[in-house]
UniProtKB/TrEMBL annotation:
It comes from the Bacteria. It comes from Arthrobacter ginsengisoli. This is Dihydrofolate reductase. Gene3D superfamilies: Dihydrofolate Reductase, subunit A.
Length: 181
């Protein structure tokens, strides 16, 4: 069975989007001779492990004007643009992606993800899309793997990966024990 990998870029203080939904803290610079080789290998390994990208309507709207035209992104951009794409939206009728195949619009992302997980192929990539991710966490009953890429930025916004009530007192409990071997 294919895995659903939810990938988020976050700041060091767990913020995944600015208050206006912006992502100025995310680096989308193309690889260059100064790119850390381990980072490049991890990113390219990841894009090679998936064949389907799932986006929420907002992430799609932010991405469609850049990625299909990002020739400077080289091999990574080419692979990203050629992935099969689904956009979860109750309003969109179509989801063009430049000169690449258009994304398929789904009104029922939970059913679509379940169906895709049961098909053969590489893993599925849910990219950004906080509302979609929170719906997934809230009880769709779909197992997902979360990958957080941490930016060096520190933010003071309130749109984090985890919905946390900072005014609530944390329950008293011992921290979990983790084996490091």
């Amino acid at each position: 069975m294919r895995k659903l990998i939810v990938q988020q870029w976050v700041t060091v203080d767990n913020i995944a989007a600015e208050e206006d939904g912006g992502l100025s803290f995310v680096s989308a610079e193309p690889f260059s001779e100064t790119t850390n080789n381990a980072f490049k290998a991890r990113v390219m390994g990841f894009i090679d492990s998936v064949d389907t990208m799932i986006l929420g309507a907002n992430t799609y709207a932010q991405s469609k004007g850049y990625w299909p035209y990002a020739d400077d992104q080289g091999e990574y951009g080419e692979k990203l643009n050629n992935l099969t794409k689904f956009v979860a939206s109750s309003k969109l009728d179509d989801a063009p992606w430049g000169d690449f195949p258009a994304a398929t619009v789904t009104r029922d992302p939970a059913a679509t993800i379940r169906e895709l997980k049961g098909q053969s192929g590489k893993d599925l990539w849910l990219w950004g899309s906080l509302k979609l991710m929170h719906s997934l966490q809230a009880g769709w009953g779909i197992r997902a793997y979360f990958e957080l890429t941490v930016s060096r930025e520190v933010a003071m916004w309130k749109r984090g990966v985890a919905e946390v009530d900072v005014n609530r007192e944390a329950p008293a409990r011992a921290p979990p024990q983790v084996a490091l071997d």
